[in-house]
Design goal:
The protein is elongated, with a radius of gyration of 18 Å. The chain contains five helices and no strands. By secondary structure, the protein is mainly alpha-helical.
């Protein structure tokens, strides 16, 4: 594999580049993904591995948990968090 410092730099630049593309184009990330993947290619193979491992569900769960906890720390009553926000 790659040295840790190189792997960290590549990963950070990849995420940064993807975020910049979303911000600059205003396009949905899925549309951008479709524009850079090809059937049977390396990128779609990586995307498929992430999907198979539950990446989407894990990210949604993490954002939901952080949002809920933020509301709790902000003093929003549990009943409101549950019924008004569905968390």
């Amino acid at each position: 594999g790659l040295p840790r410092s190189v792997a960290n730099q590549l990963a950070a630049q990849t995420v940064k580049g993807a975020a910049e593309m979303v911000l600059q184009t205003g396009k949905h990330p899925g549309l951008l993904k479709d524009g850079v993947t090809s059937p049977g290619g390396t990128t779609i193979a990586g995307v498929q591995a992430l999907e198979d491992a539950g990446m989407r569900s894990a990210v949604i769960g993490a954002v939901t948990a952080a949002t809920r906890r933020s509301m709790q720390l902000g003093g929003i009553p549990e009943e409101e968090i549950k019924h008004k926000y569905g968390l």
